[in-house]
Amino acid sequence: MSTIKQGDKLPDATVYEGKPDHAVKIRDVFKGKKGVLFGVPGAFTPGCSKTHLPGFVSDYDKLTKAGAQVIACTSVNDAFVMAAWGEQNGADGKVMMLADQQQELAKGMGLVLDAEGMLGTKRSKRYSAVIDDNTVTHLNVEPDGSGLSCSLAGTVLKQLQES
Q: Active site located where (predicted)?
């Protein structure tokens, strides 16, 4: 699968929020809404926990003022882990913590990271995207799949302000 690009629709993927039996269609999350979707290689990993998720939580007011109606984080982890990670980082009511348990979203977006050597399995590349009614208007994929050079909250904030 090729990487999703600007102008493409989100895939028809199922993710999970809070617990493994609470399935959510990613297209339902962004249907009729403008927002931010960002993916990380793993909950509780250093870059994701120190910089990536906390940036979106702390910039929540700025992002919503710039037009984001929903902010969602996804990772190839289980729903319990994502919920606990969100709670630890104060994401409740700000960032939806969505578990991509079967890599359905990462595969559908063409953003799978081969992290078997480091994290034991394939994961999601680190990325951020502005989504408008299920259409990708901006996409920022880290060149190495995991670094922190272009997918942070500040980049998406500027893109929201421009659109």
A: 48
